[in-house]
Target: Aldo/keto reductase
Amino acid sequence: MRKISDIKGTFQLHNGVHMPYLGLGVYQADNDQEVINAIHWALETGYRHIDTASIYRNEEGVGKAIDSSAIPREDIFVVSKVWNDDQGYENTLQAFDDSLKRLQLEYLDLYLIHWPVAGKYVDTWKALEKLYKDKRIRAIGVSNFMQHHLEDLMEQTEMVPMVNQMEFHPYLVQQNLIDFCHQHKIQYEAWSPMMQGKIFELPILDNLAKKYKKTVAQIVLRWDLQKGVITIPKSVKKERIKSNADLFDFELSEEDMKHIDSLDKNERIGPDPNNFDF
Model:
C-alpha cells in the first residue's frame, strides 16, 4: 500500500508527475459563485486537485476561482476532459484550446478522454499525445475505459495512459480492471465514490463508521485511498468539503478493507462504458 499521509499527499504517475490523491470534483456545480466558493473552500482546507470537464459547463468559474485564490497556479493540479461530441484528432485539439481559454490557463495538469467513443478514441488519444509532447499538458489519461478499450488504445498508439478515471465504489470494485491498470502503471481514479448518496444506506458502513468514530463518507474515501485509488468527491457545501478531507488520522484494518471489498456487486450507478449512448 502506498503511503497515505495528509491532504497534500500524491501518487506518482508513470511519467514522474505527482498527482494529489484527494481532489474536489465539480460536476453539477453552477458556473458562477457556487463553483468559485467550493474551490476556495477546498483550497483553504488544503485540497490541491480540482477536477472539471467541458461538459460540466463550469470551466470559466473554475478558472476564476484559481485566478482569485492565494494558492499559486503551479501548486494546483487542474484536470479537464474532452467530451464525446468533440472527439477525433482536429476536434480534440480545438476542444483543448477552448477549455484552456475558458479556464484562462496556459496548461493543464491532466487531460482525459471522457468516454471511449467507438471509432474516435484512438485519434482523440493521438491528439492528446501531441498536446503532451508540446508540453501543454503535464499528464494525459482516459475515463470510463474498460480493459478492451485500453488494450485497443495501447496497440495503436505510442503512449500508455497515465490515469483511468472510473466509476468506483463498494458496489463496483472491478478488481480485474484495477489489476490490469496496475500492471501497466495506469493510475486508477474514482468517480462517484459515494454511489450518488446510496452508500449511506449500507448498514455495514454504518458499523465501520461507529467503530472508527468517522462518517460513512470518510470510511469510503479512506478505503479508496488505501486501495491506491485517487478520489474526487464532489460537493459545494463548505462543511462537507472539509469533512471529506478529514481522512488522515485513522487507517482501516486489512480485515475491514476486505470487508468493504466483499460488498462488490458489479452494480453501476452511472452509464455502462460498453453500452453508453454516445
